[in-house]
Amino acid sequence: MTDENDKSATQAKTSRDERLKSALRENLKRRKLQARERAASGEPSPNAEGSLDEGAAGKAGT
Questions:
Q1: DSSP assignments along 33-51, one per residue
Q2: Within its chain, how far is the Cα of 4 from the centroid?
Q3: Percent of the chain with pLDDT over 70
Q4: Is the pTM here over 0.70, yes or no?
Q5: Residue 61 CA from chain centroid, whole number
Q6: Residues with Cβ < 8 Å from 38, sequence gap 6 or more?
């Protein structure tokens, strides 16, 4: 009986991993497209002024 539970747990993990890979791939494609559009239109990048980097913001307050 534990073999069946192990198999279903393994299948669930594999399925989750595949969904996460797919979501990450789509997110990367979308971000690259946005970056290309910004570069073409001349808009500044989000980090050009007023950094969104938490590390830099955390160090500024110290």
A1: HHHHHHHHHTPPPTTTSS-
A2: 33
A3: 63
A4: no
A5: 27
A6: 44, 45
